[in-house]
């Protein structure tokens, strides 16, 4: 179906918005009146620019507080409308959104509203304009799309139809099935927005917290199905008021918005198994983590930590400054290529997928940016794409059971694979986003990469609350907690969690090799005793090994953390009896401990930063 | 009364919080359990540190989900409690907050809850601990403070009393007058929080949007009055869960919090005209703006703009690199002292007050930081203090009618005062804060400087929504719109608005002197015609003079803007027939135009920034 986006969704000037909408792939836009008023382009220039960009101007919006009024006010409102119709004629837009009256309605009557809309229809027809009447969720009298449709039917005027907005319908809990009873030719326009289920006043919810399809809690797939059964064939247009999207990069948000609409059409097409909807390639979700890549100018300190944790050095790449470590099937790639002045950072993630070519096609269909990995003819070629935060995601076809992928053979002069150790793989990779990237990231992982996004949580850090949204594959084999760092924190670290079957042994070996664990305060163990009534013997063992503990129904969770190196640290975990969480109750303790360590290290760095610092060419630590 | 603050209000480690609370002036703290658990100080060390800092540990909190449960759960809950009592004993805290059960209550009975609290009281007594039972606004069965008090009365145990939290009571709309019916000896603790009136679920409202007293919509003064009439003599403690305060500088937030509590006590003392409350100096609100100070390494470009606007150069300060311009009673001070690499910025504000010494005392009592203005013996000494965003605020006693303040005589080699011009003063000064400073700034202007804070608004900018809170003196003679810039925008400018009685003449003179007005798009005037049905003649005049227009009941508003110089620009306004706003509907047009100009200027600057740039020693523009 044709796609459109309201200019109010995006940041920047009207020109920026038009350029970005066209570049993202939209067929048209809704012109939000304040964007036109604030623009220094004349309506004729906007029209001609849209033409050059290949965009249609699908709707002019909004026209407010028209119907349900006294006669004298009606006359003034018709005058107001006529001035707008004149602007629309200059723009070449043929449909105007008329919202149900919020501010000035005093007459609660379908007949009066219908009569007044008929008068407006007459005036509109003279300008070749159509009226799309919409029930706002907070309209004074008309706040239900079924009533708006009834008034439109009563108005019985060819230039008067209705506009359906998923937010106004679903936020009120109105049954969208009634859409199928509206004659198709009377549905002049459709606006789509998702939203999280929030218990707050619907006006603030609508103005600040709308989301793109697939990011909230509304069943938009079902909504689109009703539209198609009703026979609607016009554009699907996004109208998303969101404080974050209004601030983020225009082109990027437009691409993100377009992705949501492509995904939604594909979802609806699958449910309906027909229809004029865009379909995209299907791809099964990942079945495992192939590798995690850490990049740095000098990866030495990271490798020292891996060594202390008990991973095995598997070799240096035969053509690139890249090294491989593994612990059982958990593989860490350490990359010093093009990494001048880069502190250790999680730079890439290899995912094992049932069909890499299919996943690559799906990502392409969703407008995800591909990445190219340099390789020689005799090396494995990995398909890949970029996540919104710049993480490189590579796709690897599943090798046989217990087999290693062929790219491992490109590493030389290392030790053989250690199959006896207790590491069983990468348990999860914790990624960190800014607030501006978060919604886009969640949609990316779910729509493009086949992850699920269960309910989010919040954990307290010394610098404020951290929003945490886990995305995981349906079978739980790949888990990515996505954290939104507090706005004030810089260099918030990410981490890689390795799963093992004997954490006591791993911790003891690491301690024996001199690893500096992230310290766990004594008070934590006292609290643990009070919360879980743990056996004193276990408590003592936990305390002396500096392990953290959590419980979840029958399941238990043991874990510990390394100190950070640059922007990365490691966690080792052991899940017992089906524990399914991430130790969220322990996160505040971990974050407070990291803040203490960071402060001590910062002080040490600063006191060392005299004129002689760096004289021995030592890297910053 | 004794003052206290819950550690959860502040960012940082437990040590940081304790240090900051003591430095701000609090008598004690509530220990928020997760802060202790995450700390590497033992309970004994916390106790001894508090002693050294002169802080009492007033409350241990929270203990959740205790009463209204089945017998087997009660046994487990008593075991949980006992472990906490042991920690409290080590801390030396004698009161624990027990919240009404949210998660595990299954028995809705006052008798059962009372019986279970009595059991808890017996256990507590053995540890010299008291139970302060609090009704959470979202408690499963107990969600009203009157029911909590009834249960406490039924429990009839010396170690069992109640805790009253203003948020839980006022958010539910419960009448706080019932507090006076609770026996004083049964009110074990009081927690205070303000909040904006929000229509949202009370749990999210409480966890994220609480504010310090004086910053929200609750009548905390009345609340405190009820407490005193009840005979309560314990501490007044702040418990404010707020996402922003959890992120901002610990010491600064503590000082801000303490200020709110001092202010609240003073307000309550005035209402009661008695009581054990802290009183502070009274001071009448400002009656005018004495001057606005702009600071820059080179103020030349700002002065050129003032000249084009028609202000008069009044002279150079006889001992400092400071220059004075005036237009009628509007005085601008241009300061190049200690301004290396400073772009033009609003740095100071002189306020005319009825009694400068009284205002200075009040600010001092509220812990506001004073500033010192260098002066010689024969120069005026201005008292002053710092606003939260670093603005220097100076206080000047009102001179006689039409007289200029004596400090004006320190300026030499300028022109005499022009009394014939149409400028009538500074209309308003628009200041910009980050989101982190905003609540503190509003409290500062209202509590310390005698301003009112009417309802806030939001305006759309190309970079996102701008929150705007006007503070104004009760008579409207001093007005300061405080804007919160979108998080992504840098160098968001501030402006000074001058009022005149003939804006057409001022605009025409400025145009004649070659001033570059901020351009107003043509579409704006088309929209104005549609919105207000303006007379075509007036519309043409507005368009050709590039003036903006607004209407407000009978009143009309004419205004225009200069381009920005550094972080400052100017507005000229004329209010007609009692117009009382700031042209908020025009703000999006202004912001979009500024963004266009900024972009052009940035491009020009960048293309000029070749190797030869700066070769002639021209300042950055």
From TrEMBL, chains A, B:
Involved pathway(s): Aromatic compound metabolism; 3,4-dihydroxybenzoate biosynthesis
Presence of keyword Transport: no
Residues covered by region (Disordered): 600-621
Cofactors, names only: a divalent metal cation
Domain VOC: 288-398
A GO molecular-function descriptor: 4-hydroxyphenylpyruvate dioxygenase activity
Binding-site residues for a divalent metal cation, renumbered to this chain: 134, 165, 191, 239
UniProt record similarity statement: Belongs to the bacterial two-domain DSD family.
Name assigned to this protein: 3-dehydroshikimate dehydratase
Organism: Nocardioides aquaticus
Encoding gene (name): hpd_1
């Amino acid at each position: 179906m044709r796609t459109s986006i309201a200019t109010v969704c995006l940041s920047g000037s009207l020109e920026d918005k038009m350029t970005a909408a066209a570049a993202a792939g939209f067929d048209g836009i809704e012109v939000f009146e304040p964007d036109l008023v604030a623009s220094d382009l004349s309506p004729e220039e906007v029209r001609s620019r849209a033409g050059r960009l290949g965009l249609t101007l699908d709707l002019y919006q909004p026209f407010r507080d028209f119907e349900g009024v006294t006669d004298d006010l009606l006359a003034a409102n018709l005058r107001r409308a006529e001035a707008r119709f004149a602007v629309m004629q200059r723009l070449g837009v043929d449909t105007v959104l008329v919202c149900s009256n919020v501010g000035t309605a005093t007459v609660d009557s379908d007949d009066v509203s219908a009569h007044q809309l008929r008068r407006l229809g007459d005036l509109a027809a003279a300008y070749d304009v159509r009226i799309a009447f919409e029930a706002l969720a907070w309209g004074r009298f008309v706040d239900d799309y079924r009533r708006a449709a009834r008034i439109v039917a009563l108005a019985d005027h060819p230039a008067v139809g209705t506009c359906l907005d998923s937010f106004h319908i679903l936020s009120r809990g109105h049954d969208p099935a009634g859409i199928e009873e509206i004659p198709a030719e009377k549905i002049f326009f459709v606006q789509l927005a998702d939203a999280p289920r929030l218990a707050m006043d619907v006006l603030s919810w609508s103005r600040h917290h709308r989301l793109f399809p697939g990011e909230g809690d509304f069943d938009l797939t079902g909504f689109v199905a009703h539209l198609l059964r009703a026979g609607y064939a016009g554009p699907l247009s996004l109208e998303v008021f969101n404080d974050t999207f209004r601030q983020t990069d225009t082109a990027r948000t437009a691409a993100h918005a377009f992705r949501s609409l492509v995904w939604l059409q594909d979802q609806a097409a699958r449910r309906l198994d027909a229809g004029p909807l865009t379909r995209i390639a299907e791809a099964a979700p990942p079945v495992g983590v192939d590798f995690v890549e850490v990049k740095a100018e000098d990866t030495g300190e990271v490798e020292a930590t891996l060594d202390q944790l008990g991973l095995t050095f598997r070799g240096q790449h035969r053509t690139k400054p890249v090294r491989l470590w593994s612990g059982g099937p958990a593989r860490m790639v350490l990359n010093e290529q093009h990494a001048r002045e880069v502190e250790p950072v999680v730079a890439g993630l290899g995912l094992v997928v049932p069909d890499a070519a299919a996943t690559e096609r799906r990502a392409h269909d969703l407008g995800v940016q591909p990445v190219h990995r340099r390789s020689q003819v005799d090396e494995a070629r990995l398909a890949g794409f970029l996540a919104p935060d710049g993480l490189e995601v590579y796709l690897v076809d599943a090798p046989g059971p217990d087999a290693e992928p062929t790219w491992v053979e490109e590493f030389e002069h290392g030790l053989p694979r250690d199959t006896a150790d207790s590491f069983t793989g990468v348990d999860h990779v914790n990624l960190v986003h800014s607030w501006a990237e978060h919604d886009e990231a969640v949609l990316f992982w779910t729509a493009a990469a086949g992850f699920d996004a269960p309910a989010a949580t919040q954990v307290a850090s010394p610098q404020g609350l951290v929003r945490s949204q886990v995305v995981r594959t349906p079978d739980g084999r790949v888990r990515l907690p996505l954290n939104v760092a507090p706005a004030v924190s810089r260099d918030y670290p990410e981490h890689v969690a390795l799963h093992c079957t004997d954490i006591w042994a791993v911790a003891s070996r690491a301690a024996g090799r001199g690893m500096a664990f992230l310290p766990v305060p004594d008070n934590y163990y006292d609290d643990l005793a009070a919360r879980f009534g743990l056996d004193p013997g276990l408590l003592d063992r936990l305390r002396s090994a500096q392990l953290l503990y959590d419980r979840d129904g029958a399941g238990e969770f043991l874990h510990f953390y390394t100190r950070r190196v640059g922007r990365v640290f490691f966690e080792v975990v052991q899940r017992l009896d089906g524990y399914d969480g991430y130790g969220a109750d322990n996160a505040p303790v971990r974050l407070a401990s990291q803040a203490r360590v960071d402060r001590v290290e910062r002080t040490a760095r600063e006191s060392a930063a005299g004129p002689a610092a760096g004289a021995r060419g030592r890297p910053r630590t």
